[in-house]
From TrEMBL:
Pfam families hit by this protein: Peptidase_M42
Similarity annotation: Belongs to the peptidase M42 family.
UniProt-recorded name of the protein: M20/M25/M40 family metallo-hydrolase
Cofactor binding: number and manner: Binds 2 divalent metal cations per subunit.
Protein source organism: Merdimmobilis hominis
Residues of the active site: E209
Entry binding sites for Zn(2+) 2: D177, E210, H317
Cofactor: a divalent metal cation
Record-listed Zn(2+) 1 binding positions: H66, D177, D232
Alphabetized UniProt keyword annotations: Aminopeptidase, Hydrolase, Metal-binding, Protease
Keyword Protein biosynthesis applies: no
GO biological process: proteolysis
InterPro entries assigned to the protein according to its UniProt record, in alphabetical order: Peptidase_M42 (IPR008007), Peptidase_M42_aminopept (IPR051464), Peptidase_M42_dom2 (IPR023367)
Amino acid sequence: MNDLTSMLRALCEADGVVGCEKNASEQAAQFLSEWMDDVSIDAFGSVTAVKKSSKENAKTVLLDAHIDEIGMIVTGIDEKGFLRVSNCGGLDRRLFAAQPVTVHTKDGDLFGIVGTKPPHLLSDEEAKKVPKIEDLFLDIGYSEDGAKQRVSLGDRVTVRTPFSVLLGGRVSSKALDDRAGVAAILLALSLLNGEDCGVNVAVSFTSREETGGQGATTSAYRLAPDFAVAVDVCHAKTPDSTTGKSVPMGKGAAIAYSPVLDKRCSDALVKMAKEQEIPYQIEAMGGRRTGTNADEIFTTRGGVRTAVVSIPERYMHTPVEVLDLADIESVAKLLAQFVREVGNDHV
């Protein structure tokens, strides 16, 4: 568990806002190189690798998680040196006022604050509203000239929150969506170390999931898998959560059923979890999309038999996401078993 915590901390602390995933991708590639050969970062910022089986005409199983995180992008610098921003991915604007942030510039990181009007100065009408992203401003302490010398339009911004270990085997951080999925895949690879399961094992830690899954589209096309498991986070229950749209945290891997996923794969995952006594639960969803990289992967080339396995997470798309490390371990064990069973033609 300590090794998992350390790995997850390193992954979450690396910045990798959508479109600027370089630092997070390099950190993930470093971990991946311990278990896979020929690890590369493509032109799109996604990390990929394939471990070939000695079996002739072996099928390929893709394990995928996204490496990008939500954040902000600098869109303007006003005459008083304040930075104007827009969102990269689905920010929860309710939580960003008065947050400390890091502005990632070409010359290094700058500390800043998301400015907010004091409650004493708010009108009754203003107090009822969540500020629009274009109404937020970042205070980095500079005048206009100083700010323009250090900051460029297009620079990315992350909220400055520490990775924290909570009680009960739980952790809190930014970017657990979806560095937790990356960690689960890395842990699965460690469980498979030294095994030739009769399949080619492909891995993709993809860019730009938070803006539409473009990294999954390009990576899956290049890797051409026969089977895929997209690993992401799902909503964990909280006192105010909606019934039917969240699952308990700490109760194991969430295996998804959806009209657009391969039911045979989902059924096989449930069977494996039961046989191997891996904690699991069911996440059932409707509609034409899962909101994960699976939506891009399963339509690649002639089609890919695709499943989704998720890690329950509280407070998604906030700077203080929370999950249970035991759920990551359950997902890792399930992924490893899925690779073995595909190699035995049991899926």
